[in-house]
Specification:
321 residues, two-stranded antiparallel sheet, 13 strands, 36% helix
Length: 321
Amino acid sequence: MPHIQLSNIASNAEIDVIWGKWQQKLEPLREFLNKALKQGWQEWEIPREAADPWSENDQAIFFTLKSEIEKGKDGNPAAIRDALQALNHNLKRAYTVNTLPANPVDPWSDKPAQLHAAWWEARIARQKEIDASIAAKAEFEYLYDKPYDDKNKVRVAGPFTVESVSPHRVLTVDENDNVVDGWKVSEGKGKSGFAGTPDFASVILENLKLAGVQQAHKEDRITFTSLVGWPGKYIGAEGRYLEGKGDNAPQKRAAILIGPEFGTVSRPDLVAAAREAADANFRHPHRLRFNYDAHSAEFEKLGRVPVLKARMNPDLHMADE
């Protein structure tokens, strides 16, 4: 099959040649058609049907009338009579139930209809020639509907996809499918400074220490001067930062809430964490999560304690990889 791309069309100089050749035939037909119908149509304005459609109001009356007629004995005779009278009055016609046209249009006379048919025939022929030129100059690819049977490969097909967040990680579970112990981070080059803690939290805190928190405005960026663990139920770390610039900038404390590695942060967790932060006299609770549910995304403040949203990069799932 030809593998057609936009570059095949843009670089195909033959299209201009084909276009110019057919324009010599199409343009005179368009001019004759406009003259016969006293119109000023451009090429893209020429209708597909050789007829003048009725007004929207008359079309609505026509379709209502047709619907009642098609009901047969179940139709409303009074509605049919009134619709027919309204239609004849608007169009100044004398239609009966048996002489109604098939469609709500007025067909053109023979000469304009012939010019219209000739124009569309040439228009379609031009497009077919252009399509053939594009296909002939495009690269070809083979499509296989009967692949060879290879026992060494697993083919996944159907209305679903298979994804793996961290294919290199293996978690040890017990007989109840509960995680026994996550792998630990050792000290050394390229490793987290939070040795001896679960890897997910240490990776997040290490990244937060380096990247800080970027708010809506560039000048509102928060860069932590220190980041240490905090023995709270919801608050997992304490961060210190300077509010403002200069040597005299005051130092503030921020409470860090790390959401679950897989899942979303809920509003009740945020409320509980904000209360815990307020009791410990923190300036800001920061919530770190890959995703937030609708209610937690709208949670911005609890009393005097503002809550800042920090969305984590999905690449952090990959840890050192």
